[in-house]
Recover the amino acids of this structure.
């Protein structure tokens, strides 16, 4: 194998593709280097579900043959990536991060994996996740078949979930990009905690065929990568109509950075309190500096607030109803008791008791939420809020109690934006924006449905003014 | 096999932690039921125009 320089492990998609086209190294060698690195270092962070070294080498070899014939398939050709272990990969275990499914094998690929294969991307491994994407409500970071996701910035802290391995893989330079999924916060949280750029697409833009169904009306699949530009290229490759996904919006996505609107035209809605009293004290200086950097891009920041709804209860109710149906057999058979987290087991069992009237009321309230967001986006172009109020929690800290609470009487700001954005099917872009306690923190931009090009344009502009997205964990 | 006191302490604390994190209990079930009830109450306080149908498309 030819020597692969160490700087490839944190290179972006476009940088790596350029170097492959320049024949600086072979795709097969690159695939092998990444696949071996993931297999070797992934377990250090409990980030690896399944290594695919031989498969990656074979795909890399195919890419080399194509490049030799000048068959170019775009910026993802030859780029190593990892997929969250809730995506089916033909003939290999797809565990959904959960013991009852440890030997589950599908005879087909998830649509997103086929789509990435078609553009020449190289799957180097499946990445760890919280068991069943955490729908039952888990109490501890250890709620996973592969153990707690350890943060590459500090292994005593959590990587976030449920796309734990996806965020860790990118942050530690084990993959160039990764696929994750979000039902309510599963891309936003790990991207924020690990300091990587993450994109939750509009509901229905990316096919979920071949992905574990947790909640049909909430689940989305999206990329985690080194920067916003990479997310744009990846989204273009994985988006599009799919008759195999009943929730498909039937539309494609063309990444169009050349048509970005002027930043001076844009109104960004935010609540100052989110970056002050509603943020953990250690994170406030970073958030304030980030706000200043956002202003430097030329956008206008406008104080705003979210429409008033009990977003948490509405989301929990929808999720409970849909997961009860999805996992009814698991629950009634008693196999649910094989899960790791006691709170998650109890949450799944109890979800069978949800009254139908509550599910339907939650779904009817979603209609009103959609309408209110439509009105809100006539006043501002996008919303801006912290990804999480502070840096990653300690690995043994209970996640359902004892977390940061702002002082009593603090204004609500954009509290609940993760649940609200997911209920309304809105896209979100997570951008690393500084450090607190030597750990990354991030903010999120949320826009109207199908506004991914706008979010990415702001993200690119912000990242051209800052270098937080270029920082890497010291030990990686 | 030799084992140091430090290693022994790590094994014991890890096993205690694992036990505390995996043991299902009546408390967990009650807490989950309480959450369902609290959610139900929060929803009940929301007024809905009678003509509001459930959302089936999620593009705002």
């Amino acid at each position: 194998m030819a020597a692969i320089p160490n700087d490839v492990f944190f290179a972006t998609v476009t940088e790596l593709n350029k170097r492959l086209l320049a024949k600086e190294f072979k795709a097969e060698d690159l695939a092998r280097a990444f696949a071996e690195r993931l297999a070797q270092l992934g377990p250090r962070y409990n980030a690896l579900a399944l290594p695919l070294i031989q498969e990656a080498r074979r795909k890399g070899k195919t890419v080399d043959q194509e490049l030799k014939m000048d068959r170019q398939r775009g910026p993802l050709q030859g780029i190593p990536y990892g997929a969250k272990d809730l995506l089916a990969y033909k003939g290999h275990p797809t565990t959904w991060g959960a013991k009852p499914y440890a030997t589950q094998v599908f005879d087909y690929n998830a649509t997103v994996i086929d789509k990435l294969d078609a553009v020449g991307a190289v799957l180097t491994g499946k990445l760890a996740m919280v068991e069943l994407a955490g729908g039952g409500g888990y109490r501890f970071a250890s709620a996973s078949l592969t153990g707690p996701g350890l943060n590459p910035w500090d292994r005593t802290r959590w990587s976030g979930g449920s796309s734990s391995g996806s965020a860790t893989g990118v942050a530690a330079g084990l993959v160039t990009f990764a696929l994750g999924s979000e039902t309510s916060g599963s891309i936003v949280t790990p991207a924020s905690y690990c300091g990587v750029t993450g994109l939750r697409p509009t509901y229905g833009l990316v096919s979920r065929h071949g992905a574990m169904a947790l909640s049909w009306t909430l689940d989305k699949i999206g990329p985690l990568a080194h920067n916003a530009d990479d997310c744009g290229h990846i989204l273009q490759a994985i988006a599009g109509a799919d008759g195999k996904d009943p929730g498909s919006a039937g539309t494609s996505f063309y990444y169009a950075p050349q048509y970005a609107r002027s930043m001076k035209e844009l109104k960004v809605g935010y609540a100052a309190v989110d970056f002050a009293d509603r943020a953990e004290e250690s994170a406030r200086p970073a958030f304030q500096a980030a706000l200043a950097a956002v202003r430097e891009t030329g956008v206008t920041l406008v104080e705003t607030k979210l429409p008033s709804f009990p977003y948490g209860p509405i989301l929990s109710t929808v999720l409970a109803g849909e997961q009860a149906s999805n996992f009814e057999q698991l629950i009634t058979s008693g196999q649910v008791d094989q899960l790791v987290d006691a709170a998650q087991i109890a949450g799944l069992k109890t979800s069978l008791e949800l009254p139908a009237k509550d599910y339907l009321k939650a779904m009817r309230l979603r209609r009103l939420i959609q309408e209110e967001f439509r009105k809100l986006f006539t006043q501002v172009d996008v919303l801006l809020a912290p990804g999480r109020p502070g840096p990653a929690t300690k690995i043994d800290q209970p996640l359902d109690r004892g977390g940061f609470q702002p002082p009593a009487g603090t204004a609500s700001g954009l509290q609940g934006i993760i649940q609200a954005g997911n209920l309304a099917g809105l896209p979100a872009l997570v951008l690393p924006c500084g450090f607190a306690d030597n750990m990354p923190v991030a903010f999120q931009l949320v826009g109207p449905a199908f506004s991914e090009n706008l979010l990415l344009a702001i993200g690119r502009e912000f990242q051209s003014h800052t270098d937080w997205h270029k920082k890497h964990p010291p030990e990686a | 096999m030799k084992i140091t006191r430090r290693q022994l302490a790590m094994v014991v604390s890890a096993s205690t932690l694992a036990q505390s994190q995996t043991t299902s209990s009546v408390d967990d079930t009650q807490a989950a039921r309480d959450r369902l009830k609290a959610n139900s109450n929060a929803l009940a306080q929301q007024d809905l125009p009678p003509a509001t149908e459930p959302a089936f498309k999620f593009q705002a």
Summary: Chain B has two helices and no strands. Helices of chain B lie at 5-22, 26-44. Residues 8 and 14 of chain B are 10 Å apart (CA to CA).
